[in-house]
Amino acid sequence: MERRDFLSDIAFYSAVSVGVPNMWRVTTRPKLADYPFTLGVASGDPTPTGAVIWTRLAPKPLDPDGGLEGQRIVTAWQVAEDEQFTKVVRQGNVTTAPELSNTAHVDVTGLQSDRWYFYRFSAGDAMSPIGRLRTTPAAGAATPLRFGFASCQHYEQGYYTAYEHLAKESRLELIVHLGDYIYEYGPTDGRVRRYGSAEVRTVDQYRARYAQTKADPLLQAAHAAAPWVVTWDDHEVDNNYAASVGELGMESDEQMRIRRAAGYQAWWEHMPVRVPRVRSWGDLNITRRIEWGATASFHVLDTRQYRSDQACGDGNQNVPCGDWNSSERTLLGTAQEQWLDAGLEASRARWQVLANQVRVAPFDERAGADVRVHMDAWSGYPAALDRLMTSVANRAPNRTVALTGDIHSSWVNELRTQFHRPEGKAIGAEFVGTSISSGGDGSDAFPNWNDNTRAENPQCIWHNGRRGYVICDVGTDQWKASYRVVPVVSRPGGEVNTAAEFIVQNGRPGVTKV
Ligand code: FE
Ligand code: CA
Q1: Which residues of the chain have pLDDT under 50?
Q2: Last residue of a domain, one of 106, 133, 160
């Protein structure tokens, strides 16, 4: 025990009778009303020498302060080569605090590249579950990668059966999450599970929403199985928000910034991420890169925080309309656009991966001369989309793959220089993953996907409306994407099946169904 901790304990016990609150107490011997590792463990943002490991102490996860009443708890962590922890290679202590929900983020360094480790935490007499993490290959190593990606896990709308299967996928080395980890909405009758509060707005409410979601054992199993790379979409704050414009458009700039600060802080607290420290939680730069040796460079994007407001009142609109086509409008913001362009220019990795939220390839849902597209996706920002496609065409043609979430259905699309012209060249691929649970059971059919709209959307190769996730096997020359779907999410359990598989050859245009 450190001297400071010891003295703090003494100070606490001698001061109890005169009413010093628990808030003052730094302790190695916490008072725990129950087992504190109710939300599991996680790792993320791996490098060749380490990863972030995460946990939260919360004996009563839905209570304010997680039931810890303000204690500041010295929490031990260990990283070992074996699951029995006989070969511990790194260890230390971190003091958790109620200001940050008693979460621990340890940026572990000094590990060897390209290998698996086990990690765990302890507080008082309680030991956490064990998680597995994998470091990335050394820079320049042509090591293949097998990863999964997922998004959209509305807790009320379905069970996390897809995560049960994702956690059990063999040889899985990384999981990428593309947002809608929580939903801010209040409860709705008749769903398979129930949110604990009305629509969340304050930091304590967002925390409780993360706690309710993360208490799910299937989600915890997926976190424990491999390191994650997480970005956010809209529901971590507010449906379809754009920078500081809220869903309803009635909030002031100040009100939305406060709400963003609450949502962003709770997100950071609950995610195993390495992002720069902030002066204000209202601005949190989560844009970052994860490198998998010479095989893949992941550009983790944020298409929410810096975007122009949706054109023409959002929703699906016939275009052109309003300022939809304005070259001033942006989805990434100028700084992030330049950061992405510079990254695509500089990276020597075989594959350039956009860990993206909203659909890149437009889908004209209206048969006939009308063109009707989604205002919240890249199709709502055509000038920004043109800039992105030009950048990909010039810097990383036919080796760029966009990973997308948001729309609760699976799509395979070609990325093209000019989507609105039939002669537009294929320059990349987009794999849109379905939801884990959002939208409920789903179905194979999609009302607007028919012979007519197919003919008008040659960039769209395939669609499926079941729930699930995508597994990607990425080698030097070939990328294979396997769409894994579960039959229902309205009841627990069910097997996973591969709905379809697709291949992209590095350096060659187009996507091929296996
Ligand atoms: Fe969603
Ligand atoms: Ca049309």
Answers
A1: 1-7, 10-20
A2: 133
